[in-house]
Design brief:
- With 303 residues, the protein is α/β, with parallel strands linked by helices.
- The chain has a single domain, classed as 3-Layer(aba) Sandwich (Rossmann fold).
- The chain is 37% helix and 17% strand.
- It has an 8-stranded mixed β-sheet with strand order 1-2-4-3-5-6-7-8, sandwiched between helices.
- α2 packs across α3.
- The radius of gyration is 18 Å and the shape is globular.
Length: 303
Amino acid sequence: MSLTWDALYPFPPQELRIGGHRYHYVDEGQGEPLLLVHGNPTWSFMWRKLVFALRDRYRVIAVDHIGCGMSDKPQAYPYCLRQHIDNLAQLIYELALDNITLLAHDWGGAIGVGTALRLSNQFARFVLMNTAAFRSPHIPWQIRLARTRIFGTLAIRGANLFLRAALKSALERPERITPQLRAGYLAPYGSWHDRVAIDRFVRDIPRSPRHPSYSTLLNVEQNLPSLADRPWLLIWGMRDWCFDKWYLNRFLDFNPQAEVCRLPDAGHLLMEDAPDQVIRTIEQFLSRTICPQSSMRASPKSS
């Protein structure tokens, strides 16, 4: 009999209450904290192999944004960049984290870097994968279509097309998404109610100064160079049709000294397309870089 998806994700659930809502996260291992921040339409399930690989040497924390994964999914909620930054900053405060290495993907880049700019002294290193932390001059037609008010919402929340399509088009090797893996990605998003944040993330992409998240993203962009004094690693799936090489090059405009690992045969979901290579690259980066704040104590788990 085949295993169920949760056999791939056997981590004891942890949670904070933020604004009365459950904020779920995984917290495994001891040592310097690695903070794993997902994007849309995924959840902390995408980090499972990285958690297994690194928890023997580090404290690995993988969050689920409000509205995502195993966190609560309130319907009337400010699903915006600033709120997600607020939530992540509160987790860092509540767990007393310092000397943090950020690992972020997709929307996790803007959220994680935005949090690092707010709590700069508590972040030591950055590992970013197919993401952005700045404005973009273009949005792929697939995303523009998903942003249309009636059709987009019906497709995302009604038919779950955004997530279902991502499990095919966001990979170069969609055959790697076994029925077990597919069930894992889909598990938290089983209804119209549960898919509210997927829809709202798509709508939170700021296209003009009139957008509520424009000023937040602009602030992140303008202050991004202030973090360039720390070790950076950019791991990029070069077959990504959304966060393509333009985004990688844009990060290098802000930080030309960043290390780069280009994966020529990986797409957007590079943790599924090339997990072994991603993990090996991260392990090597962590082992050879010295955290600027390495004299700080490793943060203990909260009781």
